[in-house]
Amino acid sequence: MRATRAIVRRLRAWRGYPFRVTLRDLDAGGVIFEISNGAEGHRVLDYGGEQPYLSAMLSHLSEDDVLFDIGGNIGLVALHAARRCRVVSFEPDPSFRDRLERNLSLNPDVRVEVVPIAVTDSDGEVSLFTDGASGMSPSLRHQRNEKGEVTVEARSLDSLLAENRLPAPTVLKIDIEGAEILALRGATGLFNSADAPRALFLEIHPQLLGAFDATADDVTQLVEGAGYTQRVYEATRIGETHLILCRP
Q: Is 48-246 a domain of CATH 3.40.309.10?
């Protein structure tokens, strides 16, 4: 794949944006993405630096799973996972959601339900700080000198699931730039129910959690208190911790 990426980068320099690439590292059938800026190039061509984690997540999915992809971004996880199970992807940022839906349109055999909300611990409206799809991932706290701000709908998982419009998730993937503590707090009813997810794919951001008055230990204690004590995958990248957690 390294040689292919080098070729694609040369094509980008010659042709400019946007251009399309088909990823086959994790899916022999190929998943098509459109790259419209340098940040997307990193997210797609380099898997955001998280290819081992994505591979581990996909290996833990089965055909009867329902994956809630919380923090859908441009769809790297959702599109790959949808070849394996049912996927509901939550992406509140309009710019990232447009890119996610564009990538879905390029893969007509892939089905993903896209939900335009921020998953937190309560219902209402919140500010999302963002530089759009050409910048870093958005956050519910002003943390990286983001220039943009949009108001988006916020919901807790417990509130959403009480409406019975969405299927009960068997797996949660959470990657939301420190707001993982909020999403987890808003799912305590789910964790204590008979429909509790069998696994969590969780990215912990210690450097960003402070803006939410929380620490990585707070996140760990919350998920372990909910019964997710078996770590089947753990890795650290640039201060972020990637976990796959299951109940024993």
A: no
